[in-house]
From TrEMBL:
GO terms for molecular function: transferase activity. It comes from the Bacteria. Transmembrane segments: none annotated. Pfam families: GST_N_3 (PF13417). This is Glutathione S-transferase family protein. Keywords: Transferase. InterPro entries: Glutathione-S-Trfase_C-like, Glutathione-S-Trfase_C_sf, Glutathione_S-Trfase, Glutathione_S-Trfase_N, Thioredoxin-like_sf.
Length: 221
């Protein structure tokens, strides 16, 4: 079985887990806290980042490379769309969430509300949290805009763009950075994802010492 080195609030690991669940690829979770800088983990991934997937002699690193690998090797449930234009649009949105949303929302929230609280024992910087939440608001506006025009984020079919977005948003939501009020299209889309058996195990998981807000795993939020 594939082993996935991850921790519960790593959005890139959530993306890989969700994609593997949809493709029915069984995965064994291995807890890895990248900030602990374990030598054995550095030997596996010189970048020292989660997620890493390993099976026998094969080591896969980077969520985009990992998702591409399973898209190429597992026919079940294609996740990138059928034509080159569909795939380009899906990849644009995957990069949007992996890079832009992560830099503007998820990474500052992880730093302020997870890392400082659990590890460096500092108070969060309220200004940084406010800025991340304001940025999240802008991203939800963009989701509403897309979902007013499309059934799923990159087009008519559910795919990796939805998975990448749900991975980032679920972590930001866990950390209290998402205000769903006034975002009906995004809320309906996220509620549909939350009800999927392939996504529910992610929502059931908790980061030790850091409980999520009460609405976090509710279908009606
Ligand atoms: N591009 C990478 C990003 C992975 C990433 O940034 N992982 C974070 C955890 S969410 C990490 O390991 N950070 C520790 C570090 O960069 O030293 C991917 O998509 O897998």
């Amino acid at each position: 079985m594939w082993r996935l080195f991850q921790y519960p609030l790593c959005p890139f690991s959530r993306k890989v887990r969700f994609a593997c669940a949809v493709k029915a690829v069984p995965v064994e979770l291995v807890l890895e806290k990248p900030w602990e800088r374990r030598d054995e983990f550095a030997a596996l991934n010189p970048a020292g980042q989660t997620p890493v997937m390993q099976k026998g002699e094969i080591t896969l690193i980077d969520s985009a490379a990992i998702c591409d690998y399973f898209e190429e090797t597992v026919d079940r449930v294609p996740l990138l769309g059928s034509g080159p234009e569909d795939r380009a649009e899906a990849r644009r949105l995957i990069a949007w969430f992996d890079q832009k949303f992560y830099a503007e929302v998820t990474a500052p929230l992880l730093s302020e509300r997870m890392y400082k609280r659990l590890y460096s024992k500092q108070a969060p910087d309220a200004g940084a949290v406010r800025t991340a939440s304001r940025n999240a608001e802008g991203h939800l506006d963009y989701l509403d805009f897309l979902l007013d025009r499309r059934r799923w984020l990159s087009g008519p079919a559910f795919g990796l763009a939805d998975i990448a977005a749900a991975a980032q948003i679920s972590v930001a939501d866990y950390l209290g950075g998402i205000d769903w009020d006034g975002h009906e299209p995004a809320r309906i889309w996220y509620s549909a994802l939350k009800s999927r058996p392939t996504f529910r195990p992610l929502l059931a998981e908790r980061m030790e010492g850091l409980p999520p807000p009460s609405h976090y795993d509710k279908l009606d939020f």
